[in-house]
User: Fold this.
Amino acid sequence: MSKNQFRDDFPILNNVKMNDEPLAYLDNAATSQKPQLVIDRISRYYSYENANIHRATHALALKATDDYEQVRDQVRHFINAKSRDEIIFTRSTTESLNWVAQRWGEAKLKPGDEIVLSILEHHSNLVPWQQVAKKTGARLRFLDFNQEGVIDLNAAKKTINAKTKIVSITQVSNVLGSIQPVKELALMAHQVNAIMIVDAAQSVPHFKIDVQNLDCDFLAFSAHKMLGPTGVGVLYGKSELLEKIDPEFFGGEMIEEVSKNEASFKSGALRFEAGTQNIAGVIAFGAALTYLQKVGFDKIAAQDRSLMESAISALQNRSQVKIYGSADPANHTGIISFNVGEIHPHDVSTVFDLDGVAIRAGHHCAEPLMNRLGVSATCRASFYFYNNLDDVERFLIALKDTEDFFNRHPSKESSNG
Amino acid sequence: MGLEGLNQLYRQVVLDAAVDQRYRGQLLNPTAVQLAHNPNCGDVLELQIKVSDRHITAIAFQGQGCTISQASASILADLALHQSLESMQTRISQFQKMITGKESVEIDQLGDASVFSKISQFPTRVKCAGLAWDALEQMLKNNQFD
Ligand SMILES: Cc1ncc(COP(=O)(O)O)c(C=O)c1O
Assistant:
């Protein structure tokens, strides 16, 4: 039995059964679980601290404003942004990416300009750009990846050219777990005066991000994948660029002065946050960040590594199992996509479900990647630092149950008619 | 739950139907064709029928899918062959009520399809079981067949 010191902080991991079995939660790439202190923080805010923020004229509102704004500072330090004005709170990665696509992409692109994405992208970093391309006449181009699931930089050198205006890439694939060379791509983008956008939804929860070091122009992530509540996202944007963008929503909170015919807007990120925000969510996200920092990225990386090494080496001995992406456990970021022989992923995940092991089956919002891999779907198990070797064991037992059941009852996926 | 649940979900009838080849493929000159898509897992199924005198005289499906969706399509095809469009309409609505488990329905006309009567206990698989039936329902809605 491996003791994991963090498990006790997560009520769901200790108290919940799924299909009468103790829960082994391996769907962390979809959303992480929440520690008690994050849950309590939401409750505390609504129980004792609830007030609207900004323009405070009483002590309660002042405290709520301070707490909310303090999380902006926390996020700033968490990703090493230059200024707090570069941190915009949104609802999610999806909203952050759509925001950049519309506010920057639609405003700046012209027919013939090129947007460079990769074939690995989550639909959230693909569909918004398809829309922008349709509206502006810009063209989408796609970077391919190698055996390791990593974007090929030599090919990228040819694809990123004088016509390129935007490069938008996921830092970690939500299907393969592979880590992408976004810093190198940012350099290439800047050499042709394009901007670099990073979808960090899967990377920020797992390793230290330094936006100044990456030198990206925008970076997006979601609180809910890193112990925080749902409905809170972050968009980092370099000040020089944000200054060139007009606000898109107008109303309370974001204005400086309003007369009957004119309004002036607040500066920095605040002018993009119109109306009453998800105050409880942002404040609880602050608690999640504090907790994550206490855990530390060294520990998170070590646990990712140990879980991936043990799971992948066990899977490599199972002749029916095919793992997608790298053979190197260090290039998986807690994520393993696989298939079991001809058994359909949805049938596999049902066996896991009945065994109390939560994994995901499907296209994982990355259909172009599925096509590239030549499959319609995969199973995906995704781990976080509170998972332990017992979870890996449960995973392997469910896998054996899957193989046993379907080998005894061969109803192979008789696909393609 | 484990094995007991599996045995309940994957009855022998289901496993056999999933590999049944009789209705797989395409028809020559089908009267109607319908695609059905399960957005949860990306499965796509194409159903084709030939209709004469408001009766289904041939039926086939193709596509990729899980055991449940493939078995359900086979069972539907077997049930629908030679039936009138009207009687299939009734059966589709019986089947849809049965799989969601929201109300108790007569399932006497569903034949082998009644094997899915407990699928509502596996809510993540209800959509799979209904895929082919939804496709046939769409076809009956979208076409006149006169
Ligand atoms: C790489 C990647 N990008 C974007 C998203 C979208 O995140 P959200 O649903 O929080 O907007 C996800 C979440 O699944 C993801 O994995």
